Amino acid sequence: MTLWTAGFLVGLIVVLVVAALLIGILQQAMRILSLAKTASGVVADIDINTRSVWALRDTNTVASQILDGARAIDDNASAVVAAVSHETQTETAA
Predict the structure, then answer these.
(1) How do residues 26-57 score in pLDDT, each as one tens digit?
(2) Residue 3's pLDDT band (boundaries 50, 70, 90)?
(3) Hey, which of 8, 45, 46, 67 has its CA 20 to 30 A from 23?
């Protein structure tokens, strides 16, 4: 075996190893692309399914406003009851 033949064989082995590595890299890149497409679809579903959670802030604000209104009505009703009860007590005392 001459030096030229040995160099040719070493070069051939290097080229084959590099080609095998490139094929492996391409296969992994295709796998990653496939997983990324699947993940993108899942992210879209998660976004749609969790929009109601983000709307809870608005719901809590409206519920707080309704509670404030109910408290005001309760205070006014208590004032009316107190006024009516006071007049009734005054009339029965006289």
Answers:
(1) 999 999 999 999 999 899 889 888 888 888 88
(2) very high
(3) 8
- Please tell me which residue, 92 or 5, carries the higher pLDDT value: 5
Task: Specify the 3-state DSSP secondary structure of 94.
Answer: coil
Most distant CA pair in the chain, distance: 135
In the DSSP assignment, the letter for residue 27 is H
Cα gap 74→84, rounded to integer Å = 15
Nearest Cα to 68, choosing from 80, 56, 60?
60
DSSP-derived secondary structure letter, 56 = H
Q: By C-alpha distance, which of 94, 86, 55, 44 is closest to 36?
A: 44
Please report, as a single letter, which amino acid is at residue 1.
M
Place of tokens 């005001």: 72
* Angstrom distance (rounded) from CA 60 to CA 66: 10
